[in-house]
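Subject: design request, 166 residues
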């Protein structure tokens, strides 16, 4: 298991571990996980997100500058994506759905949590997250040769309190 900040919950630590493994397997093995940052507020340039439902629930998203997201989408989809358009957005959402689905299955198979996924959300408007509404907001930056893609995970605080981690 990868070593993470001791303040991260088991849920967040497992998410990050599974995320990095799945990026290497399904998109680009030449990546580097940068330090995870906790925010009280975070703005997504546009909404490319998916909710993980159940207990604990969570909000997940993918964010970055459009040029980097195009290259990441192309790495994952393995088709020629050359601009930040509908094809690019759909590839990014497909990747988010894949990693979240594999995460939920992993938790279930290991008798940790039983969770589900809502359909991915796509909105070209920016989205502001805040800790009062979304709980602890984690930015998980992943560096590639062409730039940094940030995965965002927001974990409700009431879950951490119930798990004795607050």
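Subject: RE: design request

Done. Sequence follows.
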């Amino acid at each position: 298991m990868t070593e993470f900040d001791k303040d991260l919950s088991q849920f967040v630590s497992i998410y990050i571990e599974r995320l990095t493994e799945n990026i290497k397997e399904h998109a680009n093995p030449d990546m580097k996980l940068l330090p995870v940052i906790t925010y009280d507020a975070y703005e997504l340039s546009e909404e490319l997100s998916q909710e993980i439902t159940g207990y604990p629930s969570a909000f997940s998203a993918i964010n970055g500058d459009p040029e980097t997201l195009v290259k990441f989408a192309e790495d994952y989809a393995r088709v020629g994506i050359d601009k930040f358009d509908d094809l690019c957005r759909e590839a990014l959402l497909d990747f988010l759905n894949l990693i979240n689905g594999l995460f939920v299955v992993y938790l279930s198979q290991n008798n940790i949590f039983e969770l589900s996924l809502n359909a991915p959300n796509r909105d070209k408007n920016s989205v502001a997250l805040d800790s009062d509404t979304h709980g602890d907001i984690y930015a998980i930056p992943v560096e590639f040769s062409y730039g940094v893609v940030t995965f965002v995970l927001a974990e409700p605080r009431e879950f951490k309190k119930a798990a004795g981690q607050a």
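The chain has one domain: 10-162.
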